[in-house]
Structure to design on (338 residues):
């Protein structure tokens, strides 16, 4: 009988090479010193990999809200949203997010990963087709698999390639969903949303924008790429996470579609998992309010991102893309230098 983990031996060898190079995957933060610093291996270390874009993890109002919810509601809900796990505080967060986005409906999921799993599985089915950017996040790919829909990939940020594939596909008798990301997490580049909207007008598909790394970051209202492009009305569905700008745990899907609330009952990742803890939900509510009343945080993030971007370029390093964003990737020549 074959050992199930035999296939991971090559992976183990790679991890050992990383360790021998004096680094490690998943360093442990022994003590948090601030939103951007921690003790790692006994050293005061800058957290260059943090997604704490708005710096709210130590925000006094967020901490106070979480502590109060913990005292009032306990440590967890012990149930799913369709059983005993829906509290008034969950619905309050959904209203807060819907208002922030200017949308009619919002569904809160237990994690950002589950938000994409749940949205893909709740929206699409075996008779439908999902078109997604080749650089899409793993949660999007896994959500497509869970949905049972046909999956068609198009070249990264290439609206012309999407147009060709839609034309070739024609009328399939099912729905067509196109999935984009506001900011792509590997290289930090944005989707050219206006180009894709032109293709949408031609073919009539429904559009989902994953604003995980762009919510709170882009746009005059901080709603993400669609907000920045002035195309919020073209995004049929928006997905986001709490683990970046909001500084908590959870995720959401939002829409103006009149039937969107039915996703609660067609999405297994929503139906069959415990709801987010009250403390995390309360923290998220407080954080969204901070984002709404302090837009200068976005300006400061943009300034800091630009400074780092141009500084790294000035050192002669090759960056992942030509756009300034809070995700800045440095390309390395080989695995050891990485």
């Amino acid at each position: 009988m074959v050992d199930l983990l035999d296939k991971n031996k090559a992976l183990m060898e790679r991890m050992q090479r990383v360790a021998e190079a004096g680094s490690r995957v998943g360093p442990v933060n022994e003590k948090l010193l601030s939103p951007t610093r921690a003790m790692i291996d006994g050293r005061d270390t800058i957290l260059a990999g943090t997604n704490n874009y708005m710096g709210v993890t130590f925000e006094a109002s967020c901490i106070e809200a979480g502590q109060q919810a913990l005292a009032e509601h306990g440590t967890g809900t012990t149930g799913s949203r369709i059983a005993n796990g829906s509290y008034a505080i969950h619905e309050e967060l959904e209203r807060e997010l819907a208002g922030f986005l200017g949308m009619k409906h919002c569904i809160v999921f237990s994690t950002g990963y589950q938000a994409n799993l749940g949205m893909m599985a709740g929206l699409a089915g075996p008779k439908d087709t999902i078109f997604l950017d080749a650089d899409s996040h793993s949660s999007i790919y896994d959500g497509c698999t869970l949905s049972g829909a046909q999956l068609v990939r198009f070249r990264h940020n290439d609206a012309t390639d999407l147009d060709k594939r839609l034309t070739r596909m024609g009328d399939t008798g099912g729905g067509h969903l196109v999935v984009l990301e506001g900011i792509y997490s590997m290289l930090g580049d944005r989707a050219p949303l206006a180009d894709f909207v032109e293709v949408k007008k031609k073919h009539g598909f429904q559009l989902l924008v994953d604003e995980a790394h762009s919510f709170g970051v882009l746009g005059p209202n901080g709603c993400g790429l669609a907000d920045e492009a002035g195309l919020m009305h073209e995004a049929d569905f928006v997905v986001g996470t709490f683990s970046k700008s909001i500084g908590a745990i959870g995720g959401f899907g939002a829409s103006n579609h009149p039937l969107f609330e039915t996703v609660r009952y067609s999405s297994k990742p929503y139906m069959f998992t415990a709801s987010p803890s009250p403390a995390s939900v309360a923290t998220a509510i407080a954080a969204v309010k901070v984002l709404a009343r302090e837009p200068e945080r976005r300006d400061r993030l943009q300034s800091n991102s630009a400074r780092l971007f141009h500084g790294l370029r000035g050192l002669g390093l090759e960056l992942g893309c030509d756009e300034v964003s809070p995700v800045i990737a440095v390309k390395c020549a080989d695995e050891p230098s990485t």
In short: The first strand starts at residue 31 and ends at 34. Residues 137 and 185 are 8 Å apart (CA to CA). The longest helix spans residues 296-314. DSSP finds eleven helices and ten strands in the chain.
